[in-house]
Amino acid sequence: FGLNPKNFFNVAGYLQLFYKLGKMSLLAGARWDEHSIFGSNLSPKIGLQYKLTDALSVRVNYGHGYRAPSLHYVYSSIAYPVDSNGVTYILYENLPNPDVKPEKFRAAELGMRFMPSKKFGFEFILLYHKLVENISYSAVFVDPEKLPNPANFVALAAVNDKDSKAELFSAQLNAKAREIIPSLRLNTDLYITYSKGKEVLPSAFGTLDDYRNMPNWMVQWKLDFQPAKKWVVILHQTFSDKWKKRFFPFPLEIMESGGLPIETKGYYTMDLINRFAINRNFHAFLIINNVFNAEYGGIDAYGGLYDLQYNPQYGRNFRLGFSFTME
After folding, report:
1. CB neighbours of residue 246 within 10 Å
2. What distances in angstroms separate CA 238 from CA 24, 169, 213, 221, 308, one per listed residue?
3. Distance (Å, rounded) from C-alpha 305 to C-alpha 139?
4. What's the CA gap between 247 and 304, in Å, rounded?
5. Which three-class secondary structure state does DSSP give residue 100?
6. What is the pTM of this model?
7. What span, in angstroms and rounded, lies between the C-alpha atoms of 217 and 105?
8. How far apart, in whole angstroms, are the C-alpha atoms of residue 80 and residue 82?
9. Cα angle, residue 283 at apex, residues 277 and 286 outer, rounded to 5°
């Protein structure tokens, strides 16, 4: 059971205007999308930046946008035969939905950047994001007049819900420092994000005091230094708090009582990169990804029950190689 996707196209045009007057800069733009399946959409944005001093500036941005559904949401279907007392029925797990619509959102940003020198600086950003007509896998009725011999009365399908909405507030701190220890040429970059959201779930499944697929805390920390003249070491570290899964086909209390997962656990990973300059043109590298062999789940692939099976993350792995540059 399924639908054959048609040939489709998406044509987009973008116009951007920039104006600067003294310490103030104004940026305005608009994008027009014409999609053969999902129609047309206009996405405007406007931004203003003011430079208080040579080192300190503030900015504010606001914009609207949309996201056309993946064809997976439109055409994906899972159905297979089952036998019961000599009679063959069809079990419909996932149903396609050619009527799914694009998601629409608006976003605002307020930022401050302080760069007192080339070796040190930080940026603080406040963000707001609101999404309406969310696409979510929800329980739908299996119509026996349209689907032959159904073995079940309820299946899953990607749907929009005009009453659902999702709001997200985030605060982000980005900091960098260069040559902290000059003899080692030690540099660091740090990114810390705290997010808190709230969702009105589709299909009147209640309110979620969180934002799906978004960890409350996300920290990324990069260190690079030179233990020797021709040897560079880079450490990438990532910490993610737990987050709510996107898969909410039933009310929260039913999912919990039925043992369906509603959260994905947080994780910590570290990647180690070594670069060796054998000579001016010949380099070698050794990369160890996921040094501590952390077992963790990634952000949901498409919001289904089996996401973590279809979205595996690598355990510890190694890469050794060489590069040569001709001049």
Report:
1. 20
2. 36, 21, 16, 7, 19
3. 13
4. 6
5. coil
6. 0.83
7. 22
8. 7
9. 95
